[in-house]
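Because discrete structure vocabularies remain unfamiliar, we first show an illustrative case, written as a sequence plus integers encoding its fold.
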Amino acid sequence: METLNWSLAIDLLLALIIIWKLVQGRRDGAVKRLGRLAALAGALLAGGYVKRSFAEQVSERWLEPGILKLLIHARESMGLEDLLVNLARILDKANLPGFLKVNVPERVAALGSEADSVVEKAAKVVSLRLSEWLLFLVAAILAYAIIRICFDGILDPVIRKLPIVGSLNGLLGALLGAALGVVMAVFLLWLAFHLIPALSAPGRPLSPEGVERTYLTKFVFQQLPNLFIRG
């Protein structure tokens, strides 16, 4: 009986998510919903374009000199070997280009007079990646804000004033909201199944016998079985 109650509670939660997004979509309308998708796509495209086009210039002109001074100061205070070790860790964690991904003691022993060159290369790599991410974030945020203003503040009010088109805007918004609700419900069900293994243990709500007593959950498991297979 307890398993049945919890299984039906999961079904109820999934249904509430879908209904909530449907109502929200009806209220917002299709223009706002599409505007959010367009803003997200535009943000990614704008961020990628600006990063590719201007990162190197920004890095060389504004970031690299300051970072080079910091690395030279760090080398003087901690020594070249410790500096390279710490830089290697930073570069590895940041998934940066890997000229430091070598045996550090051997590399340092072979450096000799190349120490300054290594610090300069490190400054170039770090400043370039920092420049890329800063430009991407700034461009993406600006593009997202501008596109949202165009859809929400300009296009949406005009569409709502048109009799037939305004009604279609609400209907299509409800459909888009319901579709988003279905995606969210499936995603949350997938997360619960994979992140909380106890829920699919024998006798639990997401076990085969628990799912069999449900409606929405059972439908999702039957339609998307590959999502609910543990590797």
Q: What stands out?
A: DSSP finds eight helices and no strands in the chain. Helices lie at 2-28, 30-78, 80-93, 104-111, 115-161, 163-195, 208-212, 216-223.
